[in-house]
Design brief:
The chain is α/β, with parallel strands linked by helices. Helices cover about 45% and strands about 15% of the residues. The chain contains 13 helices and 10 strands. Helix 3 crosses helix 12 and helix 4 runs antiparallel to helix 8. The longest helix is centred in the C-terminal third of the chain and has 17 residues. InterPro entries: Acyl_Trfase/lysoPLipase, NTE, PNPLA_dom. It holds the Pfam family Patatin. Keywords: Hydrolase, Lipid degradation, Lipid metabolism. It comes from Vibrio olivae.
Amino acid sequence: MFKIMTLLILFASIVGCSSKVNNTYNDLVSPDLTKTKRQAEYKTSAPTLGIAFGGGGVRGFMHLGVIKALKEANIHANVVTGVSAGSIAAVFYASGMDYQHLENTINNVEMSDVLDITLSSRGFIDGARLSDWINSQVKQSDLTQMPIPIGLVATNLSQQKSMLITKGNPGHAVQASSSIPGAFIPVENQGNVLVDGGLLDVVPVNYTRELGADVVIGVDIYCGNQAAPSIDQSGMQITFSSFRMLTCKLSEADLNSADILIQPNFDLQSDSEEEKQAAINAGYMAAKAVLPKIRHALLSQKISEL
């Protein structure tokens, strides 16, 4: 994936021309309820379990393994959040899609299904194809229609802060949450410029609590397995490593606040079938390893409320 992205960046910079792309969606809404009201809205008598699916590009295949392990253990989330690649996992999970359908969907997706190369001074990937693909896979036309409460995180460049999206077209929300700056053409929503939510919230643990979760599982596929940069790395690789370090430093407090943090020990570099399956297995094994912690956290929360 790194080689593909590098070639695309070089191609776009060499061509240097611009085409008009309209990624204006005004349907995405951030909740204006207070934290207390939001928690009351989603509160149940049993401890509420939330999953925060983190960003990480092609590493997102690890989320499938995590979901598989939780399903086998009969552990189900009451609320989910997602950012960037994790927004895809969150939407599919919240839509009520059964696991076999989810597995088939993820295993069969090709880069050509979700990437639409364009020539623009604002980016070289439009993003609309990703949006259309998401909408073709789920039955709901709005996030509020999903059986599990969901929030997706984007970065609002205009207001210089992160934004939780709980209402709007699922594809539009995923596109906004996944629009990597410089690569994807940004999304405009109600006059604001939205880009990848992972800039400020690589794993949206705190937002999951704001949606009412008592116990939060954070799934980090990006920060927990960084390899130390070597002296012979290219300038582009050093740039990506620096960007990754900055993003993870900004997200440290959020990561550390998770009740259970799942960090698969695998740094996926391509979308080859072998790497994809290895990533899924890494997510599966990492989730299996913390199942006792999840059960203990849920039990402890239940006892504390008696």
